[in-house]
TrEMBL record:
InterPro entries: Glyas_Bleomycin-R_OHBP_Dase, Glyas_Fos-R_dOase_dom
UniProt-recorded name of the protein: Glyoxalase/fosfomycin resistance/dioxygenase domain-containing protein
Alphabetized SUPFAM superfamilies for the sequence: Glyoxalase/Bleomycin resistance protein/Dihydroxybiphenyl dioxygenase
Domain Glyoxalase/fosfomycin resistance/dioxygenase: 8-143
Superkingdom of origin organism: Eukaryota
Protein source organism: Tilletiaria anomala (strain ATCC 24038 / CBS 436.72 / UBC 951)
Amino acid sequence: MMRAIPCLMVSDIASALPFYKEILGFVNVSKPDKSLANICRTPSGKPMLQGAEEGVQLYLRTPYPPPQPQDPPFPPMSVHVEVANVDDMFDEIYYRAQRTHPSEDDYFPAFQFGKARIHGRPQNTSFGTREIRINDADANLLVFFQDIRAAPQASNSNIVRGPVERKVKRR
């Protein structure tokens, strides 16, 4: 077996964990300390047990040694996570966000939580994915995506589906 566990640098574990757990639905794999949190997100919502369940595992880590005021800030990192249905994932995140940070406006809901930000609803890309982009408070980027190129095609041969999901009649 081979696997990778991405590590995202955060300025403070205690400040970062609530966003990952309350909004994004991650759970602790082990007890976090002030320099490291081992978290995961699985379909069951329970911690991963040595690859027994599919999901994504992340390390949140503070810089070591601690940065000095004259040091440049650590660069943000990115993680891309493939999911079965990105729209369902967005609905779950939106529900969690509304539960913890209620918004009066359903048309323009709040997608900003302190410095953390959800970049709107899922969007189709020109390279065949549908994704939501999320920055944590330390500007790390999490992209949850679904490959829409592999989606079943319509049985009507006059319809062509593209990344924008529009219907076009062939002549």
